[in-house]
């Protein structure tokens, strides 16, 4: 099945997007790798998903759906944008066209942008492993931000069930810019 016009596709299956949440870092401004909790990152299996793209190609025999061109995914307050997105679903686990696909993993590429509330993340590529509940953003420069607080590395690994996150520098250094005015006062 190939859809060449702009398609608006609703799936209320187990496709879940993760939102980038606030990173609270207690260490210094620069480190080789940084670990923290990402509070805003959670799964939402119960909310409908809206997907827009320039083209959709469903390959049921290969258990995948390929969204290309200006991909935009919205679920609740979370938005994911990318040039391309491939949804891999489990064989025999339904299909995307019927809305009951059992999603195995999602891969996004070409200028990935993820937003949830006041938090944003950008990267070159991303993957969501729904079985292992792992979310990874990669790129020459992976940027996480909330307001004026900015975190830069090359790979962000997140355990979606717990929100545990690790930002890696990939040979360089993780860079963190914190705005002291963003701290909560008692």
Automatic annotation (TrEMBL):
The keyword Chaperone does not apply. One of its GO terms (biological process) is lipopolysaccharide transport. InterPro entries: LPS_export_LptA, OstA-like_N. GO terms for molecular function: glycolipid transfer activity. Keywords: Signal. Residues 1-31 form the signal peptide. One of its GO terms (cellular component) is cell outer membrane. Residues 50-163 form the Organic solvent tolerance-like N-terminal domain. Pfam families: LptD_N. It comes from the Bacteria. Transmembrane segments: none annotated. This is LptA/OstA family protein. The lineage of its organism: Bacteria, Pseudomonadati, Pseudomonadota, Alphaproteobacteria, Hyphomicrobiales.
């Amino acid at each position: 099945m190939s859809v060449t016009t702009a398609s608006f596709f609703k799936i209320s299956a187990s496709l879940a997007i993760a939102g980038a949440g606030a990173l609270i870092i207690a260490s210094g401004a620069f480190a080789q790798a940084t670990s923290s909790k990402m509070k805003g990152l959670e799964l939402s299996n119960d909310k409908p998903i809206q997907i827009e793209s320039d083209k959709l190609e469903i390959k049921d025999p290969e258990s995948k759906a390929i969204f290309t061109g200006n991909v935009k995914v919205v679920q609740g307050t979370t938005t994911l944008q990318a040039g391309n997105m491939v949804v891999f679903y489990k064989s025999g686990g339904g299909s995307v066209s019927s809305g009951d696909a059992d999603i195995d993993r999602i891969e996004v590429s070409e200028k990935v942008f993820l937003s949830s509330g006041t938090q944003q993340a950008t990267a070159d590529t991303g993957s969501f492993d729904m079985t292992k509940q792992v979310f990874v953003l990669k790129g020459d420069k992976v940027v996480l931000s909330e307001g004026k607080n900015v975190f830069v590395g090359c790979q962000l690994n997140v355990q979606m069930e717990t929100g545990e996150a690790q930002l890696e520098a990939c040979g360089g250094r993780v860079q963190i810019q914190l705005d002291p005015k963003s701290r909560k006062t008692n």
